[in-house]
Design goal:
Layout: E1 11-17, E2 26-27, H1 45-52, E3 56-60, E4 79-81, H2 89-94, H3 98-116, H4 119-134, H5 142-146, H6 169-172, E5 180-186, H7 196-205, E6 210-217, E7 236-240, E8 259-264, H8 271-283, E9 289-290, E10 293-299, E11 304-308, E12 317-318, E13 322-326, H9 328-335, H10 339-348, H11 352-364, E14 369-371, H12 394-411, E15 422-423, H13 440-444
Parallel strand pairs: 3-4, 5-6, 5-8, 6-7, 9-14, 14-15
Antiparallel strand pairs: 1-2, 1-3, 8-13, 9-13, 10-11, 10-12
GO molecular function: glucuronosyl-N-acetylglucosaminyl-proteoglycan 4-alpha-N-acetylglucosaminyltransferase activity; metal ion binding; N-acetylglucosaminyl-proteoglycan 4-beta-glucuronosyltransferase activity
InterPro entries: Exostosin, Exostosin_GT47, GT64_dom, Nucleotide-diphossugar_trans
Keywords: Disulfide bond, Endoplasmic reticulum, Glycoprotein, Glycosyltransferase, Manganese, Membrane, Metal-binding, Signal-anchor, Transferase, Transmembrane, Transmembrane helix
Length: 445
Amino acid sequence: MAKTGRSTRMHDVTMTTWSMRGMTIRSCSTTPPSASFLGARLGSFRFLESLQAACIPVLLSNGWELPFSDVIQWSQAVIEGDERLLLQVPSTVRAVDNERVLALRQRTQMLWDAYFSSVDKIVLTTLEIIKDRVFSHVSRNKLMWNALPGGLLVLPEYSTHLAHFPFYYLSLGISPGQEFTAVIHAVSPLVSQSQPIMKLLQVVSKSKYCSQIIILWNSEKPPPPKSKWPPMPVPLTVTDGRRKTTSRFLPHVAIETEGVLSLDEDTVLLTSEVNFAFLVWRSFPERIVGYPPRSHFWDPVKQVWGYTSKWTNEYSIVLTGAAFYHRYYHHLFSQYLPPSLRALVDRTSNCEDILMNFLVSSVTHLPPIKVAQRKQYKELPNLQGVKGAPWSNPEHFTQRQECVNAFASWFGYMPLVHSQFRLDPLLFKDQVSVLRKKYKDLERA
């Protein structure tokens, strides 16, 4: 990874705390911090060790080229000194203020996680840099490589503009658009005008933020003619889902809005609930924002990850049967994740919502956001010819347990993050005038 035209040496000193204003110097190793480690070859493994430990490498090696230096701005992660002026190094290190120490350490963690934490990432980073050189007209810029979530998760095939990616909105001071596209996953044949999907269409289409509705038709029977669908104030498109569960997360060209509302055909919501969740998502456009929560846990007896649908104070998953997210995650789902994981989802017709949560949490390092919902639902009777709920299948829960562990194995760690954060509409159940309540329908439900 290092290149030079002459023989060179690298001394690296990595420190977790710094000697500043009387503080004690401590080293990440047992060697005194003033000591230097002479590399036996051009690149010392201690350099990567220091990144992994969130330490700041102090490099003394004139002419040594750091790995991936054509895209990584190493000045934001390391301190470089002149090997001919070793006596000046202690004073240079002590002159670094606390704010820059924190910034440098945060950057070392970002670079380690994004590019050096596995052999696969090192190889993939190399290949992506080469691709950027070959296809320079659609290459990533320096900010994409040096800001979270890193260049490997910014697909230039999607866009080369920062404003098109949800995780740059905050730094750019922009917000997503004020409309969303609803994508409804339909697996049941349409045999009655009283089926839940018909009510759902009416509820969603009444939202003032809804731009269009797309129905992904994954039923074994062909979709009904256009005349069978109810008239609505927004365009309705029925698309062949090819009977694949992962089709709900394909980057459909018909989706023109940044916000996507993913829905199951039997989801029961109010228009006011849809509106509130969308406004919350516009404040957190890089996350999944929705209603049904789930959680994961570590089983110390079985030594595996567990999955639970019990309602507790904590959650780490928001099911995509009723959730908002940015359309860019459709591109990551279909182009970044390996075909083996998507094949697992299609084979079991299960776990696509868990996989999407894994993906988004691995990108953001943040949990999803749960918004308020009604606590009581009426049980809808099963109609003739309509499939029952998938969770009625005894294998459904077992499959989801297995999926959690399969996904964690591929990611190499557990990216899901627990949270207790919930957002309710203002004055949701306060004893105030109904005229002051923006979401008064939620209280009556």
